[in-house]
Amino acid sequence: MFEATIYKNRRKALKEKVSNGLVLILGNGESPANYPDNTYKFRQDSTFLYFFGLDMPGFAGVLDADSGKEYLFGNDVDMDDIIWMGPQPKVKELGEKIGVENTSPFAGLADMLRQAIAEGRRIHFLPPYRHANMLQIEELLGIRPELQKKYASLELIHAVVALRSVKEQCEIEQITNACNIGYEMHTTAMKNCRSGVKEQYVAGLIEGIAASYGKMVSFPVILSQNGETLHNHYHGNILKKGRMMLTDAGAENDMNYCSDFTRTVPVDGKFDSRQKDVYNIVVACNRKALELSRPGVTYLSVHLEICKVLAQGLKELGLMKGDIDAAVAAGAHALFMPHGLGHMMGLDVHDMEDLGQIYVGYDDEVRPVNQFGTSSLRMGRRLQPGFVVTDEPGCYFIPALIDQWRQQGLHKDFLVYDKIETFKDFGGIRLEDDVLITEEGCRVLGDKRIPITVGEVENIMG
Q1: Beta strands of 250-313 (E only): which ranges?
Q2: pTM over cut 0.85
Q3: Average pLDDT score over residue span 98-105
């Protein structure tokens, strides 16, 4: 937990951005895994964490944009809880830690909202993503779950996105800590990428590292020698010489800040010539994104420029042909990179995606592009100092997609299908870093950068 002044300043800024009424911010509750007393590891709602800082279930906060008052609702534990959990701080004590003077049992929340509704006051809430909170909003506000996204406050969404997008120094320090855990996770994966080893063994090692230093992994580990499947969560294969292992994994630290890295390495530690050729193209894409990313530049433009680097590299390998700018404009490159360059990151690995990606990654100026590949770009708007984004270009040879495009005769002026056929056994490569936008440009977060060049990777694996 940060100092109380951090949370007080954030809540003050939020109240100033909301015109009137009450702001309701629900925390999360426990979620049963297979019976009520056996729960999944608790994860607090990120927006509640950002403004109220309490990493425990059963709380809600209310901000009164008119009077300026702030309220924390939650129940003190009883003796049964103390027997199983030990002594716990009272709600009033927790309120003092985060600078909230007005505290009340949770039942008081319904009374407050009922009175506000009777007075015709506006109640702002964010779109819920957990069914328990959907039911709670229905009980509190009388809005059925299927209508809650429609009635969620767009004014509040924009206010929260504006505040959470620009990371404070204390947040950058926490993300850096999560990145340092990610460094150990990925270098451990590299050192254990050996033929005859099961993917699950490597995945388990890095999950354990994340748990030992922080809360957990920041998302389910993606680790596979079949890297052409972008989010491959199956870990049942035995690693084979001649393949590459793609590892997309990050940590969530004790303050719930996240990291998200991807590296792709050759099984047994040596790239063959074909792997090296494609790998170096993706390294060049990653490097180009770092060169271009700076305040005032749209991330959509950065995405499109690295797509040109990808296409040029593939043209030099004989896999693409024709004018590179025209190929990218037509979307031919998306056969090899059917995703966007990156996304926002912070308290969520895809930061604030629960609020609606259209509000996080885009704005009135920069709108999504309705073209295969680029349509999957989560972050397109202009970069600002304090943004943390991922830089994750890739190159994949997806047999089913290659077959479909060839059958449909797509982009024949730019794609050399006969040569592409010989790469259908290749797999996929993705290289991802977490990047802070600074006043001058950008920098990769973490005290040490995870090995990325061919030489660095082969050296640490050897």
Answers
A1: 251-252, 261-266
A2: yes
A3: 98
